[in-house]
């Protein structure tokens, strides 16, 4: 699955119509280019993606070899609430509410609903993060050792040299080793950074977590909690 935020722009030919932006077009070209290297060996050509309109914009579906699907969701900010939080709400509802149910009832996975939620994880990353596979494995191992753990984050640090980088390293270290450790001792870690965190599906689905996160901010504390 690939999700595009703000995937549409006003058409150059007609101001009343929207069209996909240059990033989506680049992806379409990249998919065709990558698939052609495989399909030429199979003496086949990749079919163009199926275009499906949706309440949030649209989606493109490629039928690949082996019955595999590549689905690209395109969000139109004119049709659904924009900004990062609402994109996260949409993605989480899709992955946790729709996709897990599909896997459960389709029989593709022989797991109970409870085990499926406990053993499904979502890895949140920033686009410029650089990490090694063992960093993810450490988070998964931590989750497996403590089944009540809902989220775990790796210790991140900037790369490079210079005074600003040194200051950022100090700031990040204080936040990871002191601030979060203090919050843990008090009883609740307030934030798991989105640049490198692993979330357990069960924790996100428990006690209306997504429903609470979907609350429209009306008070100052809600803006601080949800929209900063």
TrEMBL record:
Keywords from the UniProt entry: Glycosyltransferase, Membrane, Transferase, Transmembrane, Transmembrane helix
GO terms in the biological process aspect are: chitin biosynthetic process
MF term (GO), any:
chitin synthase activity
Kindly list the GO CC terms recorded for this protein. cell periphery; membrane
Query: Where does this polypeptide localize?
Result: Membrane
Q: What are the EC numbers? A: 2.4.1.16
Q: How does it sit in the membrane?
A: Multi-pass membrane protein
Q: Which domain of life is it from?
A: Eukaryota
Task: Enumerate the PANTHER family for this protein.
Answer: CHITIN SYNTHASE
Q: What is this protein called?
A: chitin synthase
Organism placement in taxonomy:
Eukaryota, Metazoa, Ecdysozoa, Arthropoda, Chelicerata
């Amino acid at each position: 699955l690939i999700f595009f935020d703000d995937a549409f722009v006003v058409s150059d030919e007609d101001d009343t119509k929207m069209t996909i932006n240059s990033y989506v077009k680049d992806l379409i070209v990249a998919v065709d280019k990558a698939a052609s290297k495989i399909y030429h060996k199979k003496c086949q050509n990749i079919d163009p993606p199926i275009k499906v309109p949706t309440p949030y914009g649209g989606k493109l579906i490629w039928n690949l070899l082996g019955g595999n699907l590549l689905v690209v969701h395109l969000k139109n900010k004119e049709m659904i609430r924009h900004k990062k939080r609402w994109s996260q709400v949409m993605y989480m509802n899709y992955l946790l509410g729709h996709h897990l149910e599909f896997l459960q009832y389709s029989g593709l996975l022989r797991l109970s609903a409870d085990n499926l939620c406990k053993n499904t994880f979502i890895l949140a990353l920033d686009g410029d993060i650089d990490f090694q596979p063992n960093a993810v494995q450490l988070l998964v191992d931590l989750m497996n050792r403590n089944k009540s753990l809902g989220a775990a984050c790796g210790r991140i640090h900037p790369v490079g040299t210079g005074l600003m980088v040194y200051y950022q390293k100090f700031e990040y270290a204080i936040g990871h080793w002191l601030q979060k450790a203090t919050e843990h001792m008090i009883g609740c870690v307030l934030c798991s950074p989105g640049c490198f965190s692993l979330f357990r599906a069960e924790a996100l689905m428990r006690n209306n977590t997504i429903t609470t996160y979907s609350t429209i901010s009306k008070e100052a504390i809600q803006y601080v909690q949800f929209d900063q």
